Amino acid sequence: MLLDRPEAIVTIFRSARPTARGGSERPVYPSSGASGADVAAPPGADVGRPRHAGGRAVRLTGAAAAVAVALAGCATSSSAQVSEPGTKGGEASLALPDLGAVTIMGGGSGRTLLLVGLLVCALGIGFGVLSYLQLRRMPVHQSMREVSELIYSTCKTYLVQQGKFLLMLWFFIAAIIIVYYGFFVDFTWGRVAVVIGFSLVGMGGSYAVAWYGIRVNTFANSRVAFASLDGKPLQMHRIPMKSGMSIGMVLISIELIMMLIILLFLPRDLAGACFIGFAIGESLGASVLRIAGGIFTKIADIGADLMKIAFGIKEDDARNPGVIADCTGDNAGDSVGPSADGFETYGVTGVALITFVLLAVNDPAIQASLLVWIFAVRVGMVIAAALSYLANDAWARSRYANVERFNFETPLSSLVWVTSAVCIVSTYAITYAVLGETLAADGLWWKLATIISLGTIAGAVIPELVKVFTSTHSKHVREVVKSSRQGGASLNILSGLVAGNFSAYWLGMAIVGLMGGAYVMSGMGLDALMIAPAVFAFGLVAFGFLCMGPVTIAVDSYGPVTDNAQSVYELSLIEDVPGIDAELKSQYGIDVQWDKAKQMLEENDGAGNTFKATAKPVLIGTAVVGATTMIFSIIISLTDGLTTGMENLSLLHAPLLLGLVTGGAVVYWFTGASIQAVTTGAYRAVEFIKDTIKLDAGATKASEADSRKVVEICTQYAQHGMLNMFLGVFFATLAFAFVEPYFFIGYLISIAIFGLYQAVFMANAGGAWDNAKKIVEVDLHAKGTALHEATIVGDTVGDPYKDTSSVALNPVIKFTTLFGLLAVDLAVSMSNEGQGTLVAILAAVFFVVSAFFVHRSFYGMRIKTSLEDDGAERAEHGRPGGDGAERAADPLLAPELAQSGRGEVR
C-alpha cells in the first residue's frame, strides 16, 4: 500500500533554499509522473552476470526498479517545494575571510603565524625523512634484506595496479563535478578545472603517503628481524617506533602543507572549491586503498594460515607460497590503508570545520580568528608529537637498555599518554595566544581549548579501552583461549563475539560521555559566536581525536612491521646459512640466540596486534563525529541558516525517518560484500596453494613465481570486490541525494551511527581472536595442537572482521558525506531549474544501478564450484576439485587458470 501511494508518506523538498541572506523563494517542484517504463536499465547490466543466474539477475533488476520508482515517487508530490540556492555551488562557492587581519598575542598577524606553520611542516617532513635514512642505514643480514626487498617489489606491483584503478574510478567523480559545476552552477570552466585539479591533488596525496609508508615499513621489517638475533628487546621496539613516527610526521606535515597553501596563497574566493575538491579526492583515494587493501590482506592471511592446519606446517613456512602474499597484504592492508585513511581523515575533518565556520559564523573577523586558531593548533600538535616521541624514546632507552625482557606494550602506552598530556598543554597555550584577546569575554578561549582537549583525552582513553578487549593480557582474550580448550573453534568464535559486543558498549559510552562534555561546554556562551554551537563542539572533539595524529599513525604502523619481521625471519632461512653463527659474530659482533629471537618476535607481534586495534576506533570515531559536522553544514545550507524548513528535521517528516532506516541496510550490505570478496578470494588462494605447495624432503622454499601468483589472485579479487562495492556506494549516494535532501540527511546520520557500532564491534572481536591465537603460540607454547587449530579458525574469522569490513566503513562514511555535499546540491539545483521530472527519473536509475552492483557483489563474487564432495577428485588428481567448466568461466579466475593450465573441463 505504501509503495502504491508514496505521496501519502512524504512531502518533499519543503525546506527553503535561500536566494539571499534573509529571504527565500519557494517554487513548486513539478510532478515527474515517473513510471516503470521511465526507468532506464543499468548500464552494463549483462557484464559479469553469474553463469546460469540470468533469470535471477533480471528478477532482481525488476524488483530494484519497482523500489526505485517508489523512491522516485517521493520526489513527485505536486505540493513539494524547494527554494532557490542563494550561493550557487554550495560549499565550493564559499570565500575565506582575510586571515591577515587577525592579530595574535604579541602583535603578529594570523597570516604570519600560518607562514611559520609552513616552516614547522617542512621540519616535520625533514624529521620523517631523517628517520627514513637512519632506518635504511641500519645493519641487516643479506638473507633478510632479500626477503624484505621481495616484499617491497610485490607491494610496488600492487600499488601500481591500484593507481590505475584509482584513476579509472576518479573519472566517475570528475564527471559529476563537470556536470554540476559546469552546467548547473555559474562556474567558469577555469574554476571547474580548479575543483577537478584539487581532487587529483587530494587523491595523489593519499596515494603518495601510502607508497611512502610501504617503503619505510619494508626497510624496518628486516631490521627488526635482524635486531632480534642478539637477544636484546630494546631495538626491536625502537625500530618499528621510528618507522611509524617517520610515516606519521610525513603524512600529517604534507596534509597540513597542502591545506595551508590553499589558505595562504590561493585567491580567497577559490578556497571553497579547492577544499571541497581536495577533500573529495583524498576521500576517494582512502576509500579505494583502504577497502581493496583490506580485502587483499585477508585473502592472503587466511590462505597462508589455513595451510598450518591442512599440512601441519609452521607459521610463515618458507615452502608456503602464500606467505609472501601475506607479507604484501600486511603492508597493503595495515600500512597502505591506514596511511591513506589517516591522511584523508585529517584533511576531511579540517574541511568540515572550515565549512562550518564559514556557514555558521556571521562575523568575518571571528571567522578568520577561528580558522587561524584551528590551523595553529594543528601545527602545534606536530611539534608536540615530535617532542613526546623523543622524550618517550629517551625514557625507554634509559629503562630498557640492558634488560633481557619487557612488555612491548608498555612504552607504546606511555607514548600515547605523554603525547596526550603535551598536546593538551599545547592546545591551551596556542588558544590563549590566538584567541585570548579576541574571545576574552566569558572565557570563551579556554572553553574552546577544553572542548578540543576532550577529544585529545579520547585519543588516549579509547586505546586503553580497546586494550581491555584485545590485548594479550586482557581477561576477554584469555576467556577466548579458555573457551577454546573444551569447545574448540565454536566457543572460540562465540567468546570473540562477546568481546566485540562488550567493547561496542564501553567505547560507545566513552564517546557519548566525551561528546556530552563538549555539548555542556558549548552551552556556556558559544552561541554568541555562531549558530548551533553544539555541532561545532562535536567537530572540535573529532579534531581533538586527531591532535595526536603522528603518534596515532605511528602506533598503528608498529603492527605491520612487527608482523612482517616474524615472516622475514622465517623466510630468510638464516638459521640454515652455512657458518652463520661465526659470520654474525665476526661481522656484527652478535652472539646469536635463536630461540630467544623467535620468542621475542612473537611477543612484539602481539603488541603490534594490540596497537593496530587501538587505532581503528580512533579513526572510526573521528569519521563519525566529523561527519556530524559536515552533515550539519548541509543542513545549514538547506535551511538558510536554520531559519526555514526546520520542520523537515523532525521524525514526523517521513523521508528523514526512511533515510535513517535505509542507512543501516547499506552498512550491513557493505559488511557482507567485503567479507564475500575475502571469502571467495581466500578460497581461490587456498586452492592454488594446495595445488602448488611442495613439501617433499628436498624443498626449502616456495618459488618466487608461485608466490607472485598468489599475489595476483589476491589483487584480482581485491579489485573486483572493491569495484562492486565502490560503485554500489557511489550510485546509492547519488540515488538517495536525488530522492529528497532530508531523506539523504537521515541516510547520512544512519550510516554514521550504524557504521560506528558495526566497525567497533568487528574490529575488537577480530582483535580478540587474533591475540587469543598469539597467547596459545607464545605463552602456552602449544603450536600444532588442537587448541592451536581452534584459535587459528577463530583468527581467520576475525581477519576480515578487523582488517576488512570494520576499517573500510570509516572512509565510506566520509566519502558518502563529502560526495553527498555535491550530489544533493546538484539535485536541488536541477529541481530549481525546472527539471524535477529528470531528478525523479535519475533517482530511480541511480538506485537500479546501485542495486545491480549490490547484486553483483555476491552473485558476481561467489564461489563457483559444485556442492559435491571433491575429496576423491583431489586424491585422484592431486589437486583441488570442483566443476572445472564453471571455474574456467569465472572471469576473475580466467588469467590464473590460463597460466596454470587448470582451466580444462575434467
From TrEMBL:
One Pfam family for this entry, by name?
A: H_PPase
Region annotation Disordered: residue ranges? 19-53, 869-906
Q: What compartments host this protein?
A: Cell membrane; Endomembrane system
Main localization of the protein described in the UniProt heading: membrane
Q: Name one GO molecular function term.
A: inorganic diphosphate phosphatase activity
| Superkingdom of source | Bacteria
For whether the record's keyword set contains Cell inner membrane, the answer is: no
Q: Where is the composition biased (Basic and acidic residues)?
A: 872-889
Which parts of the chain span the membrane according to its record?
Answer: 113-135, 165-183, 189-214, 244-264, 270-289, 368-391, 412-432, 444-466, 487-508, 528-548, 618-639, 651-670, 717-738, 744-765, 812-830, 836-854
Q: What cofactor requirement does the entry state?
A: Mg(2+)
InterPro entries to which the protein is assigned, alphabetical: PPase-energised_H-pump
Homology family = Belongs to the H(+)-translocating pyrophosphatase (TC 3.A.10) family. K(+)-insensitive subfamily.
Q: Describe the subunit structure.
A: Homodimer.
Function in brief: Proton pump that utilizes the energy of pyrophosphate hydrolysis as the driving force for proton movement across the membrane. Generates a proton motive force.
UniProt name for this protein? K(+)-insensitive pyrophosphate-energized proton pump
Query: Which lineage ranks, top first, belong to the organism behind this chain?
Result: Bacteria, Bacillati, Actinomycetota, Actinomycetes, Micrococcales
